[in-house]
Automatic annotation (TrEMBL):
InterPro entries per record: CheY-like_superfamily, OmpR/PhoB-type_DNA-bd, Sig_transdc_resp-reg_C-effctor, Sig_transdc_resp-reg_receiver, WalR-like, WH-like_DNA-bd_sf
Entry keyword set: DNA-binding, Phosphoprotein, Transcription, Transcription regulation, Two-component regulatory system
Domain spans labelled OmpR/PhoB-type: 132-225
GO molecular function terms listed in the Swiss-Prot or TrEMBL record: phosphorelay response regulator activity; transcription cis-regulatory region binding
One GO CC term on file: cytosol
Name of this protein: DNA-binding response regulator
PROSITE patterns xref list: OMPR_PHOB, RESPONSE_REGULATORY
Domain (Response regulatory): residue spans on this chain: 10-124
DNA-binding annotation, residue ranges on this chain: 132-225
Entry's Gene Ontology BP terms: regulation of DNA-templated transcription
Keyword Phosphoprotein: yes
Pfam family, one: Response_reg
PANTHER family linked to this entry: REGULATOR OF RPOS (PTHR48111), TWO-COMPONENT RESPONSE REGULATOR ORR33 (PTHR48111:SF1)
């Protein structure tokens, strides 16, 4: 995969000091297409659960919950998100705490281009060059769960946001069926998932996929083998 495609890396930057955060996000936006931001760890956890960023760059010392404790909570159910932790501290305590959390890197602030850019390129390579992220429906059609792109015969098929989330969940849970409750929580979130909404979403998505890719399991939900 080319470096240009690596620009699709989804990054969340977490920092409570607004000026530092805005400057960092501005820098990252010049390099990548999808940069999110959070002003504290609680907000960051909500974004991580909803948006599934590939990489989270976080400060340690923040109000409400520090960065390492946030990583520790996320790691209870998520082993794949890559974390880069930033700190102005050289305290050995933080270094020791960080060792068991599966971090990509523990870096001193401020971030420097010559350090962070190659690191993020390595993160992108790990995400986009991993065939485990690709769910094939036939020889030429697959969904890339990392970039959230549906590829058919080498061409990208446009998906609506809910279609992306729906397909990602079914691919991730394959071959087991995904329940209506899981779809409500993962795809619609706080919005109400009506019977008509799910029916229309599946109808439109089936038109973009090989025949019989999505199977309806009566009174349970949907699945992809």
């Amino acid at each position: 995969m080319s470096r240009n495609e690596y620009k699709n890396l989804k990054i969340l930057y977490v920092e409570d000091e607004e000026l530092i955060r805005k400057n960092a996000v501005s820098y990252l936006n010049r390099l990548f297409n999808n940069v999110l931001e959070a002003s504290n760890a609680i907000e960051a956890m909500q974004i991580i659960n909803k948006e599934r960023p590939h990489v989270v760059i976080t400060d340690i010392k923040m109000p409400k919950l520090n960065g390492l404790d946030m990583v520790r909570k996320i790691r209870q159910s998520d082993k794949n998100t890559q974390f880069i932790v930033l700190s102005a501290f050289t305290d050995t305590k933080y270094l020791l705490d960080a060792i068991d959390l599966g971090l990509v890197k523990y870096l001193p602030k401020p971030i420097r281009h010559e350090v962070i850019y190659p690191l993020l390129m390595s993160c992108a390579k790990l995400v986009f060059d991993n065939n485990d992220n690709k769910k094939y429906f036939n020889e030429k059609c697959y969904f890339d769960m990392a970039s959230e792109l549906l590829i058919d015969n080498g061409k990208s098929i446009k998906l609506a946001k809910n279609e992306q989330a729906f397909l990602r969940l079914l691919c991730k849970k394959s071959p087991r069926a995904v329940s209506y409750e899981e779809l409500q929580n993962f795809v619609w979130g706080e919005e109400y998932m009506s019977e008509n909404a799910i029916r229309l979403l599946v109808r439109d998505l089936r038109k973009k996929l090989p025949e019989d890719t999505i199977k309806n399991i009566s009174k349970i939900g949907y699945k992809i083998d």
